[in-house]
Amino acid sequence: MDTLILGLPVAYYIAMVAKVLVAFVFVLLTVAYATYAERKIIGHMQVRLGPMRTGWHGLLQPIADGVKLFFKEEIIPSQASKFAFLVAPLVALIPAFISFAVIPFGDNVTVAGYTVPLQIAAYYDQAGKQVFDVNVGVLYILAMASLGVYGVVLAGWASNSKYSLLGGLRSAAQMISYELAAGLALIAVFMLSESLSLHKIVADQANGAWYVFKQPLAFVIFFICSLAEINRTPFDLPEAETELVSGFITEYSSMKYAMFFMAEYANMITVCAVTVTLFLGGWHGPAFLPGWFWFVAKVYFLIFCCMWIRATYPRYRYDQLMRLGWKVFLPLTLVNVVATGIWVMVFNK
After folding, report:
1. By CB neighbour count within 10 A (0-12 exposed, 13-18 middle, 19+ buried), where does 64 fall?
2. Are strands 8-9 and 109-111 parallel, antiparallel or unpaired?
3. Are 227 and 306 a contacting pair, CB within 8 Å?
4. Residue 206, Cα to own-chain centre: how many angstroms?
5. Of 38, 131, 239, 349, which is the most exposed, with the fewest CB atoms less than 10 Å away?
6. Which residues contact 184 (CB under 8 A, 6 or more apart)?
C-alpha cells in the first residue's frame, strides 16, 4: 500500500518537486545561455564573431559574466530610497520566473502506477506536464506580467534620478498601451477554444489546425505587443541608452543589475512559451520525437526570432510607439474580435 501524506501518494510529491526543478532549471539555463546566444547571433548577423575568449567559442562567457557581476561592488546612491531600491529587482524578477509555472510542456506521465497530472491543484485530474494547472492560466500569466512592471517603476522612482524616473514612467505607459492590445488579441483564441485553460487550448489545436493558421492577425499582434511589454528591441524605450543613459537601471550595479537582465530574458522565454502554447500547438508535433522536444524547439525558434528582430530593426521613437499601440493594434484587435465572433456564429467553428 502506498504511503500517503496529507491524503496524497508520495509519488505525487516526488513528481511535483521534479516538475518545479525541471521548469526552474530550464528557465535559468536558457536565461544564462540566451545572453550568449544573442551576442553570437547578432555578432554573426553583423559580420563579427561575438564572444570567443572564454571557453570554446566563448561558451563559458555567461559563467564568467555571472562571476564578475557577483563580485562587483554594490553601489547605492546616497539619495535613493534604500528599501525600495533593494526590493525593486526582486519585484521584477520573481513574476518573470513564476509565470512559467502554468505553461504545459508535455502530456500525461505515470509514476508508481498513478497518472500524474503534473499539476498541484488535484492529482486525480488528468492534465499536462506543468507545475500548476489552473482553468484560467492565461489570466494568471497576464497578471504576473502586470506585476513585473511594478519592479521597473519602483526602480525608476527609488533611484532618485531623472533618467531612471523617466525610464520607469515610460515602462508603465508602454505596459498599459500594449497589454490592452495583447489581451484583445487573445480573446479571439478564447472564442475558438471556449476556455482559458492552456492545457485545453493545446488539446483543441491537436484536434484541428494550430491557431496561428486560424488567427494569423492575432498571432502577429500578440507577439509584437508581448515584445513591447517586456521592453525588447525595437521597443526598449524604458532603457533607451541614447537619451536616458540606461533608463530605470542607470543607478544599479552588481547582481541587482544582473537581476533586471535575468528578468528581461526570463520574460522573453515566457512570452515565447505562451505564444507556442496559444498559437503553435504547444508540445504537439510529429510522433517520432517526444512532445517536450517539440515544445522546446518551438520556444527556441521564437527566441531566435526575438534576437533576429533586435539585430534588424532600430528603436522606435516614443510617439511612434504610442501611435502603433493605440491607433493601429487596438483597432485591428477589435475588428478581429468582431470578425471571429461572426465566423463562430455563422460556421460554428
Report:
1. middle
2. unpaired
3. yes
4. 23
5. 349
6. 330, 333, 334, 336, 337
CA 27 to chain CA centroid, Å, is 10
Boundaries of every domain in the chain: 77-106+135-347
Backbone angles phi, psi at 323, to 5 degrees: -65, -40
What is the 3-state secondary structure of 121-182? CCCCCCCCCCCCCCCCHHHHHHHHHHHHHHHHHHHHHHCCCHHHHHHHHHHHHHHHHHHHHH
Angle among Cα 271, 276, 281 to the nearest 5 degrees reads 160
Q: Where are the beta strands (DSSP E) in 14-113?
A: 109-111
Provide the 3-class DSSP secondary structure of residue 251.
coil
Which of 49-58, 87-96, 115-124 is predicted least confidently?
A: 115-124
List Cβ neighbours of 108 (8 Å cut-off, separation of 6 or more).
115, 116, 117, 118, 126, 127, 128, 129
Q: Which among 302, 301, 299, 295 has a CA at the least distance from the CA of 128?
A: 295
- pLDDT category, 112, cuts 50, 70, 90? very low
Q: Return the closest-CA partner of residue 30 out of 306, 290, 311.
A: 306
Q: Can you list the alpha helix ranges (DSSP code H) found in 72-136?
A: 82-98
Q: Are 84 and 77 in contact (CB under 8 A)?
A: no
Residue found by looking up cell 510529429 in the block: 286
**E-state strands within 31-93:** none
Of the candidates 176, 190, 195, the residue with the CA atom closest to the CA atom of residue 218: 190
- With cut-offs at 50, 70 and 90, classify the pLDDT of residue 127: very low
pLDDT in tens, 196-232: 888 888 888 887 789 999 999 999 999 999 999 888 8
Q: What would the DSSP string read from start to end of 244-300?
A: HTTGGGTT--HHHHHHHHHHHHHHHHHHHHHHHHHHS-TT---TTS-HHHHHHHHHH
- pLDDT above 50 for 36: yes
Strand pairing partners for 216?
A: none
